[in-house]
Amino acid sequence: MQLSLPIVISSLVTILYNLADTFFVGMLNNPVENAAVTLVYPVTLAFNAVNNLFGVGVSSAMSRNLGCKEYNQVRNILGVGIPASIQNLLNVLGSTLLNNFTAPFGAAAIAAMGISQKLYMIPMQVALGFSQGIMPLVSYTYASGNRKRLKAAIVFALRIIGRPCWPLRWFTAWAPRP
Questions:
Q1: C-alpha triplet 67, 64, 80: angle, nearest 5°
Q2: Cβ(20)–Cβ(137) below 8 Å
Q3: Can you give the pTM of this predicted structure?
Q4: pLDDT tens-digit profile of 70-90?
Q5: In this predicted model, what pLDDT tens digit does every residue of 77-133 receive, in sequence order?
Q6: Are residues 66 and 140 in contact, defined by beta-carbon separation less than 8 angstroms?
Q7: 176, pLDDT greater than 70
Q8: What would the mean pLDDT of 50-67 be, rounded to a whole number?
Q9: Does 152 score more than 70 pLDDT?
Q10: How far is residue 146's CA from residue 137's CA, in Å, rounded to a whole number?
Q11: Is the Cβ–Cβ distance between 42 and 96 less than 8 Å?
């Protein structure tokens, strides 16, 4: 929990910053400006992918090496960081494709899509923050061979991440269908 909270808070601050941009640009009452903010969002995700390449990779590699008591061997950073980076690059691709599919419906549709994407990112970033925060603990306990603590850490993370999802599932099950 201690490792996850800073990541979750950082992600939420980033999302709130993006929502504030959308809010204040939306006060101009012109959907073209809001659409522009939406179209730039994938670029932000691309920079986040590079951040994960090094941030997630370094923390996981160091934790594994420390767990094995290999204090002089902090390596394999790219091997761990690349999947996290690819995940974010796929988010960039998905956002770009979604914007391209929405573009024929006009600037107002792109602006609306951007707002809904940013709201969707709030629970997603909380879940990602917890999953990234627990990675060093999982890596350390796996490398040290402490399977009991490893299982307890994973179960704890699943409980933290899973509980907020159940009300969302219930809400979507009862939502009216178009």
A1: 175
A2: no
A3: 0.53
A4: 766 666 665 666 776 777 778
A5: 656 667 767 777 787 888 889 888 998 998 888 888 888 887 777 777 777 777 777
A6: yes
A7: no
A8: 70
A9: yes
A10: 11
A11: yes
Dist. CA 43–CA 7, nearest whole Å: 20
Do you know the residue count of the chain?
178
Structure tokens at 15: 């999302």
Of the candidates 100, 163, 125, the residue with the CA atom closest to the CA atom of residue 11: 125
d(CA 60, CA 130): 14
Side chain identity, residue 104? P
SS (H, E, C) the chain: CCCHHHHHHHHHHHHHHHHHHHHHHHCCCCHHHHHHHHHHHHHHHHHHHHHHHHHHHHHHHHHHHHHCCCCCCCCCHHHHHHHHHHHHHHHHHHHHHHHHHHHHHCHHHHHHHHHHHHHHHHHHHHHHHHHHHHHHHHHHHHHHCCHHHHHHHHHHHHHHHHHHHHHHHHHHHHCCCC
Long-range contacts of 37-41 (CB under 8 A, 24+ apart): 37/111, 37/114, 38/99, 38/110, 38/111, 38/113, 38/114, 38/115, 38/117, 39/99, 39/110, 39/114, 41/95, 41/114, 41/117, 41/118
**Sign of torsion over alpha carbons 116, 122, 127, 129:** positive
Residue 47 has which token pair?
């920079």
Q: How far apart are CA 56 and CA 69, in angstroms?
A: 20
Write the single-letter amino acid at 89: L
